[in-house]
Amino acid sequence: MSRRDRLKGLFDDTAQELAAANLEDESPARGPAGPVRSMALTLGRMEEESRAMQEALLSGERVVELDPALIDPSFIRDRLADLPLDLEDELVQSIRDNGQEVPILVRRHPQDDTRYQVVYGHRRLQALRLLERKVQAIIRKLDDIDVVIAQGIENSARRNLSYIERAVFAFNLESKGFDRPVIMKALSTDKTELSKLISVAKTIPMEVVSAIGAAPAAGRRKWIALAQGWTAATAARLAGLLGSPAFVSVESDRRFELVVAELAKKQRKPEAAEYDWKPRNGGTIKGRIRRAADSFTIALKTGDAADFGDYVSRHLDELYEAYRAAK
Question: How far apart are CA 12 and CA 19, in angstroms?
Fold first, then answer.
């Protein structure tokens, strides 16, 4: 059976039946943060792949009851942080009152055949753990590619990942060796948009992304603008802000705004420093050195100035490599 046929059997009425079945919260759609064609890809894939649990049951697959303690998360994270559920959550209340109406999908754990990995139904699993109930699940033999595509389908049908979560998910998948066509399918995106996602995640350090969080209101354009303005000195400028109580105490979208505001501040340039240089062991040369915020100048005079200047210029590549190696 081809991967396409296997995946077609994963979900049935993903966008409609599951949304109604257990009332999982839907947050506002991501909106036109990416190209319109990405939305078209998402809708097309959801229609193509909406063959889930009902077809699985009709084809003879059995729903089993599992202990939630035996089910581990997916091998790759697609969210920066899981939103905690409580007893007042609509999904939790629905399962408490009506039972688990739709099974989750799991696979045997690749490293431990006594355990499982959740493929589809992460929030239902959270809710059942909170309620201390057994989990109704369908066990399927799936490889890693099947799993990441299934996670993408779940996110398309539920609350969408924020832009930076999509970027980090794409970057993590590529870092684990997944081909870009697979990542494009998992994220319902095209080649151009995927390149931008991965570029943003590569440019902005993960410690900064983690400190900001998902920032769902900060869409594609804002994250791309932040990445385009990122330099080696940017993280240093943010060091004080990211650890401050005023930053960590606010919600994620506000943290993103604080980062942008901090970087927008005009920096006070330090005054240039100038000093003279002479060879330590004597010689017929002297120099005047000027160091500013974004420049460094050495002016050599008298004696061996021209010859020594030629010598230094010929060895600039070696000096620079030695400097980089010593950093």
Answer: 11
Structure confidence by residue, pLDDT tens digits, 240-271: 899 899 999 999 999 999 999 999 987 676 67
pLDDT of residue 23: 39
Strand partners, 40: none
Please give the angle made by the CA atoms of 178, 183 and 187, to the nearest 5 degrees: 155
Going by their DSSP bridges, the two strands 104-109 and 112-120 should be labelled as antiparallel
191-205 confidence digits (pLDDT tens): 999 999 999 999 999
Contacts of 82 by beta carbon, 8 Å cutoff, 6+ apart: 122, 126
* Token pair for 268: 């006070």
Q: What letters, b where the CB count within 10 A reaches 16 and e where it falls short, cover 15-24?
A: bebbeebbbb
Name the region of 322 (left: φ>0; alpha: ψ -120 to 50; beta: rest). Answer: alpha
Q: Where do the structural domains in the chain lie, given as residue ranges?
A: 3-160, 273-326
For residue 205, count other CB atoms closer than 10 A to its CB: 14
